[in-house]
């Protein structure tokens, strides 16, 4: 959520507008991508330091960490929702003033790319923005999967996740690995925030909460601790939401369908589609 505002403000400061040529538009989007990733990565490091580290050092139960995560999510949302008051205290003004004042309203994202039809598959039209999101998501998922499976840091992440004590005995710096994991997760969240903006076109101070719950739902559906399972879970979740709409339910029922699916999976297959037991998994 913070990453989406980083992208919006970067595009505003750079004077982005609809109808720009492809080279300039792509350049601006790359700058917005960097801004969103750095903002999200920085926030993730702060959250790790404030909301998780002490709990980890005291070997707190996973449920306590989950509650802390939910609390941190509410805190971050409300800070962004109060940015008009914070800006008033700091006497902020200028080109970002309209976005600061609209603290609890939708904030528009100026997408400089033309949204044109590029493909038609089985009667379904695919527009350029949809294709960008699809290709970028596939590239990000493959890159993350290969990073975790093949890189030295990725092996360290898996070692700390499976057995922190044994990893420490093997020379893995657990504190550094956890920090880098949070930072990389923040970078990925920032990239996802920009893709969300490219597709949806607006953001909001609390938009990250529901999206975060759905991301957790996808992870549970696929199997906690399994990156490929999270991909499968996300596809299942997306198909369930859209098929529910296709078969007559109003779009406002999408969230109900998502969380009903989560309940069903937890009742009948708590391990998820590709994962291990939730009680044993460590993410």
Automatic annotation (TrEMBL):
Organism: Kineococcus radiotolerans
The keyword Hydrolase is annotated on this UniProt entry: no
Family indicated by similarity: Belongs to the binding-protein-dependent transport system permease family. LivHM subfamily.
GO (cellular component) term, any one: plasma membrane
Keywords tagged on the record: Amino-acid transport, Cell inner membrane, Cell membrane, Membrane, Transmembrane, Transmembrane helix, Transport
GO BP field: D-alanine transmembrane transport; L-alanine transport; L-isoleucine import across plasma membrane
Membrane topology listed for this record: Multi-pass membrane protein
Top-level taxon in the UniProt lineage: Bacteria
PANTHER family: BRANCHED-CHAIN AMINO ACID TRANSPORT SYSTEM PERMEASE PROTEIN LIVH, HIGH-AFFINITY BRANCHED-CHAIN AMINO ACID TRANSPORT SYSTEM PERMEASE PROTEIN LIVH
Membrane spanning stretches: 28-51, 63-82, 131-148, 180-199, 256-275
Subcellular locations according to the entry: Cell membrane
Gene Ontology molecular function: L-isoleucine transmembrane transporter activity; L-leucine transmembrane transporter activity; L-phenylalanine transmembrane transporter activity; L-valine transmembrane transporter activity
Keyword Nucleotide-binding set for record: no
Pfam families hit by this protein: BPD_transp_2 (PF02653)
Name of the molecule in the record: Branched-chain amino acid transport system permease protein
């Amino acid at each position: 959520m913070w990453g989406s505002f980083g992208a919006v403000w970067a595009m505003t400061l750079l004077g982005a507008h609809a109808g720009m040529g492809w080279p300039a538009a792509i350049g601006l989007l790359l700058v917005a991508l960097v801004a969103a990733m750095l903002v999200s990565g920085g926030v993730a490091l702060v959250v790790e330091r404030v909301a998780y580290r002490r709990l980890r050092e005291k070997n707190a139960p996973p449920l306590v960490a989950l509650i802390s995560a939910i609390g941190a999510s509410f805190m971050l949302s409300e800070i962004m929702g109060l940015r008009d008051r914070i800006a008033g205290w700091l006497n902020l003004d200028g080109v970002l003033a309209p976005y600061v004042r609209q603290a609890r309203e939708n904030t528009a994202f100026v997408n400089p790319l033309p949204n044109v039809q590029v493909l038609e598959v089985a009667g379904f039209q695919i527009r350029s923005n949809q294709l960008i999101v699809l290709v970028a998501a596939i590239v990000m998922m493959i890159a993350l999967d290969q990073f975790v499976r093949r890189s030295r840091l990725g092996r360290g992440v898996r070692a700390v996740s499976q057995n922190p004590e044994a990893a420490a005995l093997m020379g893995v710096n657990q504190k550094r690995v956890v920090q880098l994991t949070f930072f990389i997760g923040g970078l990925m969240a920032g990239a996802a925030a920009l893709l969300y903006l490219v597709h949806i076109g607006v953001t909001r101070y609390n938009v990250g909460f529901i999206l975060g719950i759905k991301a957790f739902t996808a992870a549970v559906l696929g199997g906690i601790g399994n990156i490929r399972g999270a991909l499968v879970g996300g596809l299942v979740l997306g198909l369930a939401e859209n098929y529910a709409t296709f078969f007559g339910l109003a779009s406002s029922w999408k969230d109900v369908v998502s969380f009903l699916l989560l309940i069903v999976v937890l009742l009948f297959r708590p391990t998820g589609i590709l994962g291990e037991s939730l009680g044993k998994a460590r993410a």
